[in-house]
Amino acid sequence: MQDKDTTKFTFFQLLKPVCSITSCEQIDSLRVDKYAKKLSTEQLIILIIHAQLEQYVGLRDISNSLNENQFNQAIYLDSISASQISRRLRDLSLEVVQLLFKKCITEIGKEIGFDSITRQLGRIYLIDSSTISLCLSQYQWADFRNTKGGVKLHQRLRFCEEGVIPDKAIITSAKPADKTQMDELIVIGKDALNVFDRGYVDYKKFDKYCANGTRFVTRLKGNAKIELIKEFPVDPTGLIKKHQIVYLGTKGINRMKHPLRLIEVEDIQGKPVTIITNDFNLNTEEIGDIYRNRWQIELFFKWIKQHFLVKHFYGTSQQAVQNQLFIALITYCLLMLIKLKTGYKGPLLNIKRLLDVCLYEPFTVFVQKLYYKPKRKSKGRRKIDHEAAFQEVVKQVEADITVYSAVDFLV
């Protein structure tokens, strides 16, 4: 789906990881297009990526998007019905979108230079999940509550100076607790530090991680049983309010075998936040800063929910929902790749907005517009000198009084 002319355009640069020869060969090796008559897997994924960027609400909107000549020429598809898109999305193997997701992550790693960052900072991973509510009558497989269905996106992000990068995703129904996917998301390695919220607190797993050298930082629940071993002095005027070595759990029931560090800090509202970790090398300020960066994963979930269509699905089957969510993550990775390739330091949303108007223009034009700074011809909004204005009004009033007095004299 590429030639020497199309490669120059922003559309191809955005979709390069999906449309590359390597990706096409990998998709072909899975034989997913064996019975496809008109809509290939590559075309289907591009249609959904385009729909995510444009935030199309339904399948008919996706079908009608092919009425745009530039778009249908770019993907070599004149038309396709909504029902055909629905069937292909439902039947598309999850292995395909997961493969493309991993490829995008690899491309980001090459662009960002993960190896050099790892040597300097180590690997920091943020782990959390986000629930998307669904109508139970339409999504009967999505167990959540008695009156409501839901799907849960379990996410592991890699934290770096450029922002957060998706690293692994697991999609389940919303009912299972977060910690059921904990072992799948935790990264084992001495240079890896896993950061997660109190929804993942599990003393048995913590003992296992301490035994195999897996480092973690998390927040402690308010009702946790704590056995104090040692307390360190802290500066009462500093950010760190408490630093201790403790055992967690009740003796004889669920008490941990390994000791942990307990660090208490204050949030921006002055409320205490209790952090625990099995890392005894980082100082307390570093641990506090690392846990505060956990909020980046919340911002990530908020971003994709606001700017991609992940709260409204194009299919009701479990596979269709999972495929759409993975394609949304692929789309996010594609935007991040554009940001890294152009060296742009501004918000990712600016790239998404500019793509709406520059998708079929040369990539060089897109980059020029991305960095364009309007020349200010005006001096901007000027400040009003209220005192000078008042004195001017006084002078005018006094002048009017003088005129009226002269008229009265002549009369």
UniProtKB/TrEMBL annotation:
Any GO BP: DNA transposition
Limits of the Transposase IS4-like domain: 122-334
Keyword Oxidoreductase: no
Pfam families per record: DDE_Tnp_1 (PF01609), DUF4372 (PF14294)
Highest taxon of source: Bacteria
This protein's UniProt keywords: DNA recombination, DNA-binding, Transposition
Domain DUF4372 per the UniProt entry, residue ranges: 11-70
Key word RNA-binding present: no
Sample GO molecular function, one term: transposase activity
Family assignment from sequence similarity: Belongs to the transposase 11 family.
Protein name: Transposase DDE domain protein
Species name: Sporotomaculum syntrophicum
Lineage: Bacteria, Bacillati, Bacillota, Clostridia, Eubacteriales
